[in-house]
Specification:
Length: 345
């Protein structure tokens, strides 16, 4: 995770104020909030230096703080600059800087949410019967994280171009801009894997395409009713801290049920997201030639995608209702993304 210290933005605001820039009524309030953001960053770095169990416990608790500070800065921004303020407006540098900070804070909030969910797999907090809802929630968080990361990159790139005063982009520069950044490709690979392992509602087809949901609906696999907790109660138990912080907005147990209720192998076979993940992983390698750790993880993700694609073909070829078909999920390659193991008894 790349962290840009917000003190750089605070210094720029101070310089503009001392140089005679327009002083807004909420300047002092924003300065205090930015100081709070810096303290949140320090606390998060301290948490990331601890063991996995302590990390997950503390990251879940600080999510609310990150969300609150985002809302406070957003309200102050709207109060001073209005709803329609554009970050590309070169006449208002302070508005542009505050917008940068808003995007950055929201991206970090989704990164923390992603880390929180991933640690649940590493700590074995999820049972096989809960994988469907966990991968579904992970998919939604990954989508938002990719959106915010891409927005941050776009805004930063736009600011750099403005600074350089480029009047005309060459075809080579336009082609480079059109290329998907490696960081986004890395997230897209995970999105496809999560989408393949769980369920997403596709409004254009009014159906769902997911492995776990299809297994649950057609084979009754991974359905193990608990005498203590209903599925709804387990959903709340796992995602309560995310829900309290509204991460993401408008996500609830009913939306999860609606998304997964239509999943069938007949539609899943048509949309093999594992092949997409495998393709993205291969194409993204060149972008991480100087990052051996990320490159190694890409290779592992590619392995998971390849194995799961083959498993899906086997299930669809043999027939989902074959009573001799035994399907299990094992973390033999990646600690978070399961490998589908298919056997016939």
């Amino acid at each position: 995770m790349a962290i840009i210290h917000p003190i750089s933005y605070l210094n720029k605001l101070s310089i503009m104020k001392s140089d005679g820039g327009q002083c807004h009524a909420s300047y002092l309030l924003i300065s205090i909030q930015l100081s709070y953001v810096m303290q949140l960053v320090i606390n998060m770095l301290k948490i990331l230096c601890t063991n996995a169990a302590w990390q997950r416990r503390k990251l879940g608790k600080i999510l609310q703080d990150w969300r609150v500070i985002y809302v406070q800065i957003e309200l102050a921004f709207r109060k001073d600059f209005g709803e329609g303020s554009s970050i590309s407006n070169g006449d208002n540098a302070s508005a542009r800087i505050l917008k940068h900070i808003l995007i950055w804070v929201e991206e970090q909030t989704y990164w923390i949410s992603h880390r929180f969910l991933i640690l649940g797999f590493e700590l074995e907090l999820y049972s096989p019967s809960e994988y469907c809802m966990v991968y579904w929630y992970l998919y939604v968080v990954l989508i938002r994280l990719a959106e915010k990361t891409h927005l941050k990159m776009t805004v930063s790139d736009g600011s750099a171009k403005q600074k350089g005063k480029k009047r005309k982009d060459s075809p080579k520069e336009l082609a480079r801009d059109a290329k998907i950044p490696p960081a986004i490709s890395f997230l897209q690979c995970q999105i496809c894997l999560a989408e393949g392992l769980t369920v997403v509602h596709v409004p254009f087809f009014n159906t769902s395409h997911i492995l776990l949901a299809a297994l649950r609906n057609e084979l009754m696999v991974l359905q193990s009713p608990s005498p203590f907790n209903s599925e709804h109660e387990r959903f709340i138990q796992h995602f309560e801290l995310l829900q309290k912080a509204c991460i993401p907005d408008n996500i609830s147990y009913p939306s999860f049920k609606e998304s997964t209720s239509y999943a069938r192998f007949s539609t899943l076979a048509m949309y093999n997201y594992f092949k997409d993940a495998q393709k993205i992983a291969k194409e993204a390698r060149s972008g991480f030639s100087n990052d051996p750790d990320r490159l190694a993880e890409l290779r592992v993700l590619e392995q998971v995608a390849e194995h799961n694609s083959i498993a899906l073909n086997v299930i669809c070829g043999v027939g989902a209702l074959d009573p001799s078909l035994k399907v299990s999920f094992e973390f033999i390659h990646h600690p978070c993304f399961a490998t589908v193991v298919v056997k016939r008894s």
